[in-house]
Every structure is written in structure tokens, then in C-alpha cells.
TrEMBL record:
Gene3D superfamilies: 3.30.70.360, Zn peptidases. It comes from Pandoraea terrigena. Binds 2 Zn(2+) ions per subunit. This is Amidase, hydantoinase/carbamoylase family protein. PANTHER family: ALLANTOATE AMIDOHYDROLASE, ALLANTOATE DEIMINASE-RELATED. InterPro entries: Amidase_Cbmase, Bact_exopeptidase_dim_dom, Peptidase_M20, Peptidase_M20_dimer. Keywords: Hydrolase, Metal-binding, Zinc. It comes from the Bacteria. Residues 221-316 form the Peptidase M20 dimerisation domain. Its cofactor is Zn(2+). Zn(2+) 2 binds at D101, E136, H390. Pfam families: M20_dimer, Peptidase_M20. The keyword Metal-binding applies. GO terms for molecular function: hydrolase activity, acting on carbon-nitrogen (but not peptide) bonds, in linear amidines; metal ion binding.
């Protein structure tokens, strides 16, 4: 067989087939508003997994399931001893999720394999498409569970022991849906030659710039905190303004500070207060205690450390007003750069196809963040309408989805080597 120096240059995926597959999967757990509710390890999740497995076997893939329920569909290579070039994502959703988050990455990978079959293209290395378990964390925590176990971020036993609100464990749920696999759930060093993940952006940047492909440089690091501000409850009428110890007033100042310090480190810093609990939450009582969350994100640890220092300084300043403030760090995800050679493969793929592109950063967590700890990894973003995701109205242009999948095809073949 003649080797193809640019194996994907004349090969294109079937965009209509990709769209049809996405819509078929979206029927499983479809909601009245046009979204999807397919929580991890429910019977609907089983149906989605079964559909993927059926499709994968129909194109000649072998399928294995590991002990945390990750599903791997493998297309053999000419040298099957080489570590596979892998792609994938997740098919579990938020309770009010959309059709494309996660699902696109899985079915784009499947469409790449279908296209290679259609065109009689073999690869030197095997290719794999993976469905990771419980990425969303809507039913079980931690989030990104399947990829986290695979990458050694936490143990299999820890993950299997987690329970949902009804007390059902991950282990029991896997057995109930028939996806408690026998193969080891932890990937060995060098087990993956490269990992690509295609995903809708889940933000408005690509759309705002009129670009089709986001060449993702890496993922923002994250620090999450629980902050408790304690003052003194008092009657709203008899207590003069200058004698109050209003915890909610201090919390409002802190919320503004979180926004301000993130803006001071543009363009990639993020600062969010997403949850507030006000006590006693009564109309005519001065709030005596407020608990709130703080989510800080940045592209590098130096910036993340600067945000942390400024947050603590703001809290120290507020303590002078008779308010006690306790800060408890609860989550740290280090910034995760992606493999430069894979990022460049995506860039070259977009250029070869004549697609507009721009460098991007992932502000959200994805399975790729954990895979990057154990294998060369990169991501491809495509726009989503109005940047909306984790919402039933989540939408994407079929042409953009097709374009991203064609870039994925190019990048995977550049890495795996192809012959026709």
C-alpha cells in the first residue's frame, strides 16, 4: 500500500451521518424543551452506551469495558502493538443538558472510524474511541470520574464507593446497568499514544470572533473556596447603621472584589461567586452569617497564586468592620497545558481544510484535563450558539460540527499514520 503523506487531505467525514447519529443519541433521555437528561449510570445511560457499542461493533471495532465503566471501541492498526491514538468524551448529561456537550466528542470519533472504513484507510497505530464514565458529576461526585480513575487522580475503590442522593453506590449502579467491566481501570504509562477530544466550546468566544475552530492550548487551573462571614443578627429597625455587623453587606463587598481581581488579570482569569447562603434570611433581621462559594481560575499557577493572595487580602480588610471571615480551600485543579505537538497537529488540520481558527483556552474541566496527565493530549473546540451549554437549548451549527470532525480526522491520521 502507498503511504499517504497527507492522509486526510482528500478525505472528508459524512456530516449528515454525524448529525443523524447525534440526533439518534439525543432521543435517549430527550426533554420537552429539546434537551437531554441522561444522568450517569441510569438506565438511560445504559441505553446510550448500548447504542454506541452497537454502532462500534457494526464497523468492526472490538469493545472492552473497564472496572469504572469506561467503554473503549478499538479499530485495529497495522501494528497493533503500538499505543492507540485515542479520542472520545462522555455521553452522560446534566439534568437539563443539551444534545452536544460530550456527545459530540464521542460521535465525532465514531464518525472518523466510519470514514476511514469508507475510504479503505488503515493506520499504523490502532485507533480507539472512548466513552468516559460520569464526566458531569450530576449524580455522583467527583466529576470526570472515569477519566480521573484512568489517570490515577483518585482510586478505583474511592470512585466505586461514592453514592447518589438515594444511597446507590457507583459500584451498584454499574452492575445494575451491566457496565461493571473486568479490565483494569488505571491506564499504564505509555498506554495511550495520543488523546484528542472534540467539544463544543461552551462559551461565546469563537462565535464572537467569527472563527470555526478553537485550537485549545490547555485548561485553566481552578481554586475553589467556601467562605463564611460572621457578624451579628439584630433587629433591622432599632439598630443604627453605624452599629451594625452586617454579614451580607460584607459578603456583597467580597463578591464585587472577586469580580474585580479577576478582571485585573484579563484575559484568562475568572472569578465567580455562584452560591450564597444568608442566615437567618428574614426580611427584618440584619444578616448575621453568610456562606458563599468562590471559584477562581487562571491559565498558570503564578496568576492563580496572585488571585489567591488578593482574595485573602480582601477578606483581611473586611475583618476590620467587625466581621469574622473564614476561608476554606476545597478544590485545586492545576493549570493543564496540552501537548504542543498535538496542538500543532490541530492547527495544521484546520489550515489544510481552509478553516478559520484561533487559539483558545478551556475554562471548563474536561476528561482531556485528566488524560493530559498520562498521555499527550489536545482539544478541538467548535462554536455553540450564543455560548450556551448545560442548558436544554444548547445548539450548534451542523457545518461547524462537521468542520471540527474533519480537523479531528486530520489530526488523528497525522499522529497514527495512514495508508490507503
Amino acid at each position: 500500500m502507498e503511504r499517504l503523506d497527507q492522509p486526510a487531505a482528500a478525505v472528508r467525514i459524512d456530516g449528515a451521518r454525524l448529525w443523524d447519529s447525534l440526533m439518534q443519541l439525543a432521543h435517549i433521555g430527550a426533554t420537552p424543551k429539546g434537551g437531554v437528561c441522561r444522568l450517569a449510570l441510569t438506565d438511560l445511560d445504559r441505553q446510550g452506551r448500548d447504542l454506541f457499542v452497537t454502532w462500534a461493533k457494526a464497523i468492526g471495532c472490538t469493545v472492552r469495558v473497564d472496572a469504572i465503566g469506561n467503554v473503549f471501541a478499538r479499530r485495529a492498526g497495522r501494528n497493533d502493538a503500538l499505543p492507540p491514538v485515542m479520542t472520545g468524551s462522555h455521553i452522560d448529561t446534566q439534568p437539563t443538558g443539551g444534545k452536544f456537550d460530550g456527545n459530540y466528542g464521542v460521535l465525532a470519533g465514531l464518525e472518523v472510524l466510519r470514514t476511514l472504513n469508507d475510504n479503505g484507510i488503515e493506520t499504523d497505530a490502532p485507533l480507539e474511541v472512548v466513552v468516559w464514565t460520569n464526566e458531569e458529576g450530576s449524580r455522583f461526585v467527583p466529576v470526570m470520574m472515569g477519566s480521573g480513575v484512568y489517570a490515577g487522580a483518585f482510586t478505583l475503590d474511592h470512585a466505586l464507593a461514592q453514592t447518589d442522593h438515594d444511597g446507590v453506590s457507583v459500584a451498584d449502579a454499574l452492575r445494575a446497568i451491566g457496565y461493571a467491566g473486568a479490565t483494569p481501570a488505571v491506564g499504564e504509562a505509555g498506554a495511550v499514544g495520543a488523546y484528542f477530544e472534540a467539544h463544543i466550546e461552551q462559551g461565546p468566544v469563537l462565535e464572537a470572533h467569527g472563527k470555526t475552530i478553537g485550537v485549545v492550548q490547555g485548561a485553566l487551573g481552578q481554586r475553589w473556596y467556601d467562605v463564611t462571614l460572621t457578624g451579628m443578627e439584630a433587629h433591622a429597625g432599632p439598630t443604627p447603621m453605624e452599629l451594625r455587623r452586617d454579614a451580607l453587606l460584607a459578603a456583597a463587598q467580597l463578591i464585587q472584589a472577586v469580580n474585580r481581581i479577576a478582571c485585573e488579570h484579563a484575559p484568562h482569569a475568572r472569578g465567580t461567586v455562584g452560591w450564597v447562603d444568608n442566615y437567618p434570611n428574614s426580611r427584618n433581621v440584619i444578616p448575621g452569617r453568610v456562606k458563599l462559594s468562590v471559584d477562581l481560575r487562571a491559565a498558570d499557577d503564578a496568576t492563580l497564586d496572585a488571585l489567591d493572595a488578593k482574595l485573602r487580602a480582601e477578606c483581611a480588610a473586611l475583618r476590620t468592620d467587625g466581621i469574622d471571615i473564614a476561608i476554606e480551600p476545597v478544590v485545586y485543579f492545576p493549570p493543564q497545558p496540552f501537548a504542543p505537538e498535538l496542538v500543532e497537529a490541530i492547527r495544521r488540520g484546520a489550515q489544510a481544510l481552509g478553516l478559520s481558527s484561533m487559539d483558545a483556552i478551556s475554562g471548563a474541566g474536561h476528561d482531556a484535563v485528566y488524560l493530559a496527565r498520562v498521555a499527550p493530549t489536545a482539544m478541538i473546540f467548535v462554536p455553540c450558539k450564543d455560548g450556551i451549554s448545560h442548558n436544554e437549548i444548547e445548539d450548534a451549527d451542523p457545518a461547524h460540527l462537521e468542520a471540527g470532525c474533519n480537523v479531528l480526522l486530520q489530526a488523528m491520521l497525522q499522529r497514527a499514520g495512514g495508508v490507503a
